[in-house]
Amino acid sequence: MIGCRRPAAPTAARASRFCPHLTGGPPANVNALPEPGPIGLFRPMREADLPAVMAVEERCYEFPWSFGVHRDCLRVGYSCWVLQLEQQQRVAGYGVMSVAAGEAHLLNLCVDLDARRCGWARRFLTHLTDIARERHAGVMLLEVRPSNQAALQLYETAGFSEVGLRRGYYPAHNGREDAILLARDLLPLTSGAGL
């Protein structure tokens, strides 16, 4: 299992500073970089996690993946991970990624509503990026809704760039919504690169 960087002192005061919705208090410094207050870890998803994953999926998405899609991702060997918060002993997020032929495709990254704004999505993305590199992926691809501004900001600040558009990719209440295709180079720069 890969654990998150643990805060120096996992106290209620520290948790309220960065995750006010988990403790009920206002943030002490809204400009501070978020750090996880609660202690959590990333671990491989198991089939027994699927009911909890589905609960998060259904809370977070208007058009959720089905239980069968999640199960199939596990069964075909995609890189499926969960974020488990230790205090609550619950799944608070999950990520699904395929890695093949030198490419990683981030299919789903989700953090539960009450665990957001704590830095978990950024840490999860870093975790999955590290796994992609370990599996020799040179690029990571993903799709995101143009209406999902929080995700777009996360991916852009993590080094992803827009490389295309997939028309009518996502279901939407008024028909279909396009997907922005983003990519990030995972190969380290070598001397002479870019010449």
Question: Can you walk through the features of this model?
Answer:
This protein is of the alpha+beta class and 195 residues long. It has one domain: Aminopeptidase (3-Layer(aba) Sandwich), CATH 3.40.630.30. The protein is built from 6 helices and 8 strands; from the N terminus they run βααβααβββαβαββ. It has an 8-stranded mixed beta sheet with strand order 1-2-3-4-5-6-8-7, with helices on both faces. Strand 4 and strand 5 form a beta hairpin. The longest helix has 15 residues. The termini are far apart.
What's the short version?
The chain has one domain: Gcn5-related N-acetyltransferase (GNAT) (Aminopeptidase), CATH 3.40.630. The chain contains six helices and eight strands; from the N terminus they run βααβααβββαβαββ. The chain is an alpha+beta fold and 195 residues long.
Main traits of this protein?
single chain; about 200 residues; alpha+beta; Aminopeptidase; 6 helices; disordered N terminus
Order the strands across the largest sheet as they lie in space: 1-2-3-4-5-6-8-7
CATH superfamily: Gcn5-related N-acetyltransferase (GNAT)
**Percent range of helical residues:** 25-40%
Provide mean pLDDT, rounded.
82
Helix/strand order:
EHHEHHEEEHEHEE
- The chain-level structural class is alpha+beta
Distance between the termini: 40 Å
The total of beta strands comes to 8
How many domain modules?
A: 1
Task: Specify the number of helices.
Answer: 6
| CATH level-3 fold name | Aminopeptidase
